[in-house]
UniProtKB/TrEMBL annotation:
InterPro entries: Caspase-like_dom_sf (IPR029030), Caspase_cys_AS (IPR033139), Pept_C14 (IPR002398), Pept_C14_caspase (IPR011600), Pept_C14_p10 (IPR002138), Pept_C14_p20 (IPR001309), Pept_C14A (IPR015917). Gene3D superfamilies: 3.40.50.1460. This is Caspase-14. It comes from the Eukaryota. Residues 154-242 form the Caspase family p10 domain. The lineage of its organism: Eukaryota, Metazoa, Chordata, Craniata, Vertebrata. Signal peptide: none annotated.
Length: 242
């Protein structure tokens, strides 16, 4: 048997504009300002034009994403990457706006896909979701040593849903933890890795997952575990560091 050939992967061109939008419900979400501060530092270091909107209603989540898409498509200079951070209370598949109404995550994700956003067609779209996805709590499982630890008609075409990266702060059905002063375990870990490490984003996210899996939180007097979930349709390597 011949030796397997090394996989050569192209990288996304990140020489154009990098745009970030953060939509954060602060109401009854103590500690989120620490996350917003950390994200702003991260985007500045990574060369993103960053916009923050606080306390959007459910409808405003949709309106702000629509405006983000329209502004990108109206630009005359090339756009390399769109980065969206969504922070709110939530359940699986939905976020709760400041008004208590729910917005479907899939409706928000649709806005920047290859069909609806020309500026980001075939370009990376990163979604970071800091929200609960259910009520379950993870006490962890014991492993070794007792340690607790995804050409038509002559024209090149592309699927509608490629080049997207969805990163959730917790897995389906589970709570996402946030400290009332220090911010969320997920956002703070992600920012630390993204600003201090270099490499393709999926490798960085593996490091985020490792750190979170090795950490342990005390909630309601009990030890809890939490880890992010990463869904990717990226076709190339994505490097955020200049």
């Amino acid at each position: 048997m011949s030796d397997p050939q090394p996989l050569e992967q192209a990288a996304y061109d990140m020489s154009g504009a990098r745009l970030a939008l953060t939509l954060c419900v602060t109401k009854a979400r103590e500690g989120c300002e620490a996350d917003l501060d950390a994200l702003e530092r991260m985007f500045q270091q990574l060369g993103f034009e960053s916009t923050i909107k606080r306390d959007p209603t459910a409808q405003q989540f949709q309106e702000e994403l629509d405006k983000f898409q329209q502004d990108m498509d109206a630009r005359t200079d090339p756009v390399s990457c769109g980065f969206v951070v969504l922070m709110a209370h939530g359940l699986e598949g939905v976020l709760k706006g400041e008004d208590g109404q729910m917005i479907k995550l899939n409706d928000l994700f649709e806005v920047l896909n290859n069909k609806n956003c020309q500026a980001l067609r075939a370009k990376p779209k990163v979604y970071i979701v800091q929200a609960c996805r259910g009520e379950q709590r993870d006490a962890g499982e014991a492993v070794d040593g007792g340690i607790k630890m995804i050409v038509e008609d002559g024209h090149q075409t592309i699927p509608t849903y490629t080049d997207a990266l969805h990163v959730y702060s917790t897995v389906e059905g589970y709570i996402s933890y946030r400290h009332d002063k220090n911010g969320s375990f997920f956002i703070q870990t992600l920012v630390d890795v993204f600003t201090k490490r270099r490499g393709p984003i999926l490798e960085l996210l593996t490091e985020v997952t490792r750190r979170m899996a090795e950490g342990e939180l005390i909630q309601e007097g009990k030890a809890r575990k939490v880890n992010p979930e990463i869904l990717s349709t990226l076709r190339k390597r994505l490097y955020l560091q200049k």
